[in-house]
Amino acid sequence: MICSNEMSMPRTNLLGIAADHGGFELKQYLLGMLRTAGHRVKDIGDRRQRPKDDYPDFVVPLARAVASGQFLRGIAICGSGVGASIAANKVAGVRACLIHEGFSAHQGVEDDNLNVICLGGLVVGHATAWELVQIFLAARFSGADRHLRRLAKVTELECRGSEVVP
pTM score, two decimals? Predict the structure, then answer.
């Protein structure tokens, strides 16, 4: 568990991407697009199409690498994106969200310091997914006091497992 202020950790420019069978095709597409665009990206898997694989086996290592600072940000993909989001958010220091439209792709980073975008490989088309990833990667956390205050409450929940008192 990462209970320090992970927002101040030094960051790499390396991205991570992970998907199960439901997101495999979209992951392969995005991996190619990211590399063509000049991004450094590491594929956490699955590295082949296997109908019986499980999203936590790939999403959790991705989330841990993001939380520890090994990756600047992560892209997690499963069939709907829901399972990937649930699994990633179990890792302290990760702020993952299922994204299907552009506003949340940038607003989630700007206000909530979103560091893992979750996509549904069976729900979002390739062109839309690439657009959302570009928006997510271009966005920067505002660091506004109100956002820092809210994120501190989230970190308190992760570290203490207790309710945040207003």
Answer: 0.90
